[in-house]
Structure prediction request, 180 residues.
Amino acid sequence: MEDQQVRVLDKTFALSVSESQITEAIAKIAQQMNEELYDKNPLFIVLLNGAFMFASDLLKKLNFPSQVSFVKYASYEGTDSTGEVRELMGLSENVEGRTVVIIEDIVDTGLTMASFLSALKGLQPKDIRIVALFLKPEKLQVDLQVDYVAFSIPNDFIVGYGLDYNGYGRNLPAVYSLMG
Ligand code: IMP
Ligand code: MG
Prediction:
């Protein structure tokens, strides 16, 4: 059993999504992908850093041929979006004519995803799909279709399972939300 509360830097977080709930949700998404993507030879693009743990667990459950690559974008400082998205590491693969599946930890304002999407569209993939472990629908500022979502959550700031608070908390096996 995971801890009910954790302390990360100066803040206290309460258990929000347990490890077993995450595992179960990922199994569902994997099953859906195994049905829908098995003949598409997709290229998965993982948005670092936050999506590393989700991507690892999800990809292990897929049973069809695929490739994986990584890009790095940053928009958050502390517990808030800066509204400005910076590319820290770009894409080296040729995606022209490919089915691309973007793996993200959380879609919050959607600005990171929108920014990456517009860059990606310029490279002329055949099809782009988005999978996110978390979606905060009330904070979404852009018109985005997230094809696979594990959890829709309220506007709370969360850490764990890849998500961080100022770089800490990513290694927690469950997800915790900011208290008070
Ligand atoms: P967006 O551009 O506002 O959609 O933010 C997306 C990025 O901000 C995500 O990829 C996360 O890295 C980070 N982020 C958004 N919400 C949270 C949160 O509640 N906890 C930790 N990181 C978050
Ligand atoms: Mg992220």
The mean pLDDT is 93. The pocket of inosinic acid (ligand 1) is lined by residues 47, 50, 75-76, 81, 104-113, 157-159, 163-164 (CB under 6 Å).
